[in-house]
Every structure is written in structure tokens, then in C-alpha cells.
Amino acid sequence: MKLLKASIILFIVALLTISCFEDNDDNTVSVSQINDFVWKGMNLWYFWQQDVHDLADDRFTSNEEYASFLNSFSNPRDLFNHLKFSEDRFSWIVDDYFELINSLNGISKANGMEFGLAQISGSNNLVGFVEYILPGTDAKAKSLKRGDLFTGVNGTTITIDNYVDLLFSDVDSYTLNMAEYNGNTLESNGIDITLNKQAYTENPILIAKTFDYSGKKIGYLMYTQFINNFDEQLNNAIGNFKSESIDELVVDLRYNPGGHVSSAIHLSTMITGQFAGDLFLTQVYNDKIQSVVSEEDVSVYFPTTISGNTPINSLNLNKVYILAQGSSASASELVINCLNPYIDVIHIGDTTRGKNEFSRTILDVPSCGYLLGNGCDEEPNPNHTWGIQPLIGRNANADGFYQYTNGLSPEQNLVLEENILNLGVLGETDEPLLSKALQHISGNGKMTDLKQEEMRFKPITSSKLHTLIRDNMYIDTVPKEVMNVINR
């Protein structure tokens, strides 16, 4: 079991450095010191460590060669990008891990408008469309609603080349130039709406309601992100469904880009409950870590409680309807994939994003294996705030399946792309995706087949995919055996 620790090469970084960073306390830390943390964290945890030449355990023959390599990168971000494997679409680095940790807990600056962007056929121009509005935000106060359209920001037309700068820069305020579709073209309606960001904690339970349909009691849950700080509230929402004796459940994950694996496990157990103690998933790490863990170390089972030993409210369903599409990722896909071996998962919508890797926040705390928690109470290096969020593994379901980088697709008769000109009202029975689920529930055989208008709009991205945590899936703990080896 000492193999893992022995394989981590310890280097003395050269005193001569190329530049320094300053932290908030006017202390300085060399670029090479930060680069040393980035390399060692990636060398230990990165899922593709064995596939990246410059992360090999035997890559450097001397401390001097290692120091020279680190000094060849003038910025930690450049080194991190250099070390990423070609197939890696989702790892990233930040220079302020406090902001990252806040984001992982659902705390960020927001104006309250979640939106998508679609490319106008035959043009580089884009149209923005409101997906939903968060309560208690500026967007809510400005009376924006689902389905509203905009084609400009601050008087500039949105295009494929400028949308990032216009909508996803660090500015706290911007003005939307609203538009309408007249049946042939998009036209400005002369309305401008200025939105302002503020510190905001998002409750991911956007809608939780029941209604009667075709002689059945239906539960509908619109869940926008897997944030474990809200697992108690999620449990309460499912408890309300249970108290109302619902017959069917529709879980709407169409705009859910992912989040905590633990929350995905809890939600899956709330949907079921009859599989307590059965295998939910198996974690797959890089070759180095896999060599020191047993199958039991990386096996995760359906629980009976959430944190704090609160009993899970379980519905004991043998079937669940999940609304998911291209903006559904990571932990959303995990629920679909890991429930599939146990119950009938009716996926309605479109192919999901294909994010089947999980990550963990890696910080400059070598005595803890570069992780906070896991029984280690050391603090990260106080002289800088860099952190990395690399992909460190994949989750396989009880059947061993985890290869879905191309996404998870519904059956052909259950495919329904959202039409930005007919989005409907979330949670209402005539909203297209929910309506399709209800038609399947009623068994009347009439499956909605909405067509796009003559002028095609192809969605290309959404606001959730441009947040700090984007479509990340992250774990709260790693196998104890790994931490035991590292901490020896």
C-alpha cells in the first residue's frame, strides 16, 4: 500500500523564480511554488495521469530538471492547460478558490435570469431566450418571464463571436435589447431592460407541485442544480409528494448542469427506497489510485439517511419520468444512468451533454493529499488562493456502464426538442415536455411532435454553462484507503 506514496516524487523547487504573485495580505509566493502544487495535485489525482507524458512519475531525472520545467510556465493556468489530456473537456483552474467553494454551495452573483442562446439559421447572429427566472432577484422585479427574447446587449447585436464578452464577462450590470418574432423575422420591440447582479444563494428546488391527471396523482419536481446544502429541503419536498400518495413522478432536469454526487444519490434514493444497501455506483480512478484500492473502497450504496442522519423520504417507485436534454449534465446524467439497472427510467427530451466524469477541488495542502476534509484539518497555503478542479474519475452504474461521452438519448418516440418560440409555462400541464410525459402516463398513445417554425433556431449554449462551476460533478469524499496511504 506504500506504492502510491512512493510513486509521488518529492522535489525541492529552485529558489530562482521568474515572477511572484501577491495575495490579499501582501505576501508573495513564487510562480514555481504554485506550479509545484498544480503539478503534484494533477500527478496524484488526475484521471488521465497515466496518459499525459509530463505527468509521469518518472518524467524528471533530477530536481533541477523538474524546477526548470516549472519555471518554463509563467502562469499556473498555462501549466494546467498544458497538463490537460486532449479528451478532457471539463477540468479548470481558478485563482480564487474561495469564489469556487461559494459557487459549489450555490452562492454567487446573479441577476436572476437563466437563459439560452440560439443561432439564427443562415446567420452568425444569436437570439437569447429566457428559460426561467429566479425568485427574489432583479430579473424577477423587472417582470422578465420565460420565453422572452432578446437580440442585443447594450445596443450591440449578439453574435457567435461576441456573446461571451457581452453576457459572460465580469460586469455586474448590462442592458438587454428585447425582441419579438413576427412570424418571419426577429425584430426589436424597442424595449430595453437593465439587469443588475447581486449576491444570491439559489434554491435548486424551483417547483415542487402535485396535480391530478387522467385519474392519477402526479408529482412534478423542477430541480435546477445538485446542491447538497439543500438536500434537507429536497427531502421535505419528496416527503410532501409521499404524503399526497402520488402515483407518478416527473423530475425535470432539463436545465440542471449537475453538482454534488451525494445529492444525486439522495434524490435517486428518494425516488426509490426499496434498494437500500444495494450498489448505486462504483468509482473509477486513474491507474495509480486504482492500484491501491479495493472494489469495496470505491463502491457506493443506496443510503437510508442524508447528512445529519435524517431519514430519507422514499417513494418506492418502480418508474420515474425524467425530462432531460443537452443542458442536462453530470449529476443529472448520473441519476438516469444509475437508476437504469433498477427501475424504468422514462427519459423525455433530447440527448444529454455526456459529462460522465467527476471532480474534486484540489488545493495547496500537501499534508492532506491536496484535499480539504477527509479527516484532515490542515489549512491550505495561506500565501495564494489558486485551486484546481480536475476530473479525477468516472462513476459506473451497478451494471458497470459509464461510457456515455456522447450523452444519454431517449427512445425515438420520446424525443422532443424545445421550441424557443413555444416554451410554455414550467409546471403547467400544457408545457410541451411535461405534456409529453403526461401523455405517456395516460397511455393514450398521442405523442406530441412539435415542429420548429420555418425560421430555424439552433440552441448552442445556456447561462448555466458559463458559471464558474458550469456542468461539473463533484464528490465530497474519496476512498479512505487512498487517504490512509497518502497520510502515512
From TrEMBL:
Q: Which Pfam families match?
A: Pept_S41_N, Peptidase_S41
CDD domains, per database record: Peptidase_S41_CPP_like
UniProt name for this protein: PDZ domain-containing protein
Q: Which residues form the signal peptide?
A: 1-22
* Keywords (A to Z) from UniProt: Signal
Tell me the SUPFAM superfamilies matching this sequence.
ClpP/crotonase
Which residues are in the PDZ domain?
104-182
Q: Which domain of life is it from?
A: Bacteria
Q: Which residues cross the membrane?
A: none
